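Fold this sequence, please.
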Amino acid sequence: MLRSVAEGVLTHQSALLENNAVVVQGESGVLVVDPGLTESEMACLAGDLRGRGREVVAGFATHPDWDHVLWHPELGEAPRYGTARCAAVMEAFRSDPNWKDHAAAELPPEIAEEVPLDLFGLITALPAGAVQIPWEGPRVQVIELPAHAPGHAALFIEERGVLIAGDMLSDVLVPNLDVLNDTNDPIAEYLVGLQLLEDVAAKADVVVPGHGSACGAAAVRARIELDRGYVLALGEGRVPGDPRVGATAKPGWEWTTDIAAEQVRCLAERHGRGGTPG
């Protein structure tokens, strides 16, 4: 099930939400980014790696959404890194005695019984000031982005020309803003995140989003512009006209329209106005 997207970089995609686990080959083993979703899929990934004689020596969670902090015992006990904010969010989540019930409530009903939760969210914060993953392999730059979720990060492997974008730059998943709080501006934050990605994407040959298909340099420019237009429309109080929304959404992804409508509603409540469909 592993597919090569660049020299020494492979992906393994889940069936339900098209989550892309990314495997980066290093000197003594591999780095696994965002494995998921079901027990059988993660066991399959582990089996594929064993078949290739590859030991997992490090993991990374791009952000603290449930589908990006999963793990399986067969992947081993390597440190699973994340940004300090990502690790703090998961530590706080697991401190609740009922955390496993809360995690289970977030799971899609189609796979709720198939997602292992014992190792859910066990994330190690990167060392203070670290801008790359500490492992024996190609330099993996960590780019923390003020977009989508607390501590969300993209990874850039310049030696391999690969940008791992987390839950951004997808061809199936629309931009999903960070949760509103008393002080943040999720529209401005997301636009900053897109600019940071655009700066790095100019040096990448391949971009792997958290969901959907990987793409090349030419296609990623179009994705960035599509996401930027989508976010600007949200800021104007409109459900964006976007090929990932409504009747043009990929079959099975029609629910992205609900994301857009909910974000418009939340932003309108803050600004005291009503949202209008686009």
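The chain has a mean pLDDT of 94. The helical segments are 39-51, 84-94, 99-106, 186-201, 217-235, 256-271.
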